[in-house]
Structure formats: structure tokens, C-alpha cells
Amino acid sequence: MSDKQKKKLTRVQQEYQSFAKAREPRRPVLTNSIRAFVVGGGICLLGQGISDFFLWNFDFTEKTVGNPTVAILILLSVILTSFGVYDHIAQWAGAGTAVPVTGFANSIASAAIEHRSEGFVLGVGGNMFKLAGSVIVYGVFAAFLVALVKATVAALGGL
Q1: C-alpha span between 105 and 43 (Å, rounded)
Q2: How many CB atoms lie within 10 A of CB 135?
Q3: How far is it, in rounded angstroms, from Cα 150 to Cα 145?
Q4: FRET pair for 62, CA 20 to 30 Å: which of 28, 124, 130, 140?
Q5: Measured between alpha carbons, how far is 137 from 133 in angstroms, rounded to an integer?
Q6: What is the mean pLDDT of residues 77-98?
Q7: Torsion of CA 76, 81, 85, 88, to 10 degrees
Q8: Which of 34, 101, 113 is closest to 71 using CA atoms?
Q9: Helix crossing, 85-93 with 101-114: angle to 10°?
Q10: 70 — phi, psi (to 5°)?
């Protein structure tokens, strides 16, 4: 709480704030960071393994292997979400599961599962895109900016 807000509190309220703060459990930041690193790294390692599998066993190149790899990771995330497994992993690992593309797939699938009783259009579709809408808008805007910069650089002769 800021000092400006503390000045507005009565003495009893300030004592309670101090009392509550002293008894608040400490967050295990190091443990949480290690868990996030291990699980996020594990997801990335799995993605690298899938990429290598496609490179070695199919006719993919380094440029074309990304799309099927991401599709498999998203599919695995949605399947694990539908069985309730991904949520348990996310509870334990925290941000390690939220940062990769699998975390986004999990959030979309969770919204769809949660609102399926409201119907496919208004329930599933509407609530999935409430969550995904901002990501899609910012993604499209970022892609536009990158394309604009690339076109500008190409027009100026490739600085």
C-alpha cells in the first residue's frame, strides 16, 4: 500500500495492515521460477523433438517444419485440456505452461469447454473469441507493422 493511502487510514486500520502483511505467506519465487523453467523448457524440448521427427521422417525443410510442429503441440494441448490434465500441470508449473503456444491453446479450449452448455455459436464461439480476440487483433497489427517495415526497407533498396 502506498504511503499516500496509508495517511488516509486510521491508526487501527494501519495496525491491521501491518498485522496482515506480517502474517501473509511468502511466495516461493525461486521454486516457482524453476518449475516454470523446467516445464516451459520441456514443452519446447517436445516441440524440438516433433520438429526433428518431421525433418528426419518426412520431406520437410527447416522452413516448412514449423507449421506441423505447432499444430501437433496445439492438438496435444487441447487433448490434455479436455481430459483436465493440462490444468493440473499449469497449476504446478505456473507461467511455464502459459508462455508457449500450448498455453494459448489451453485457454481457448478451456473457454470452449466451460461455455459449451450455452450452445455452439453464442457459448463456445462467443466466449472463445472473447479471449482470443485481443490476441488476434494484436497479432494482425504486429504482422502489419512488420510487413510495413519490410516493404519500406525493400523500397529503399535493402539498407
Answers
A1: 13
A2: 13
A3: 9
A4: 140
A5: 6
A6: 89
A7: 120
A8: 101
A9: 130
A10: -65, -40
pLDDT in tens, 119-158: 766 666 677 777 667 777 888 899 999 999 999 998 887 6
Cβ neighbours, 10 Å, residue 151: 10
Q: Is 121 helix (H, G, I), strand (E, B) or coil?
A: helix
Best CA proximity match to 106, nearest among 61, 138, 74:
74
Q: Alpha-carbon distance 94 to 105, whole Å? A: 15
Where is average pLDDT lowest: 35-44, 73-82, 128-137, 144-153? Answer: 128-137
Which element (helix H / strand E) includes 115? none
CB 106 within 8 A of CB 74: no
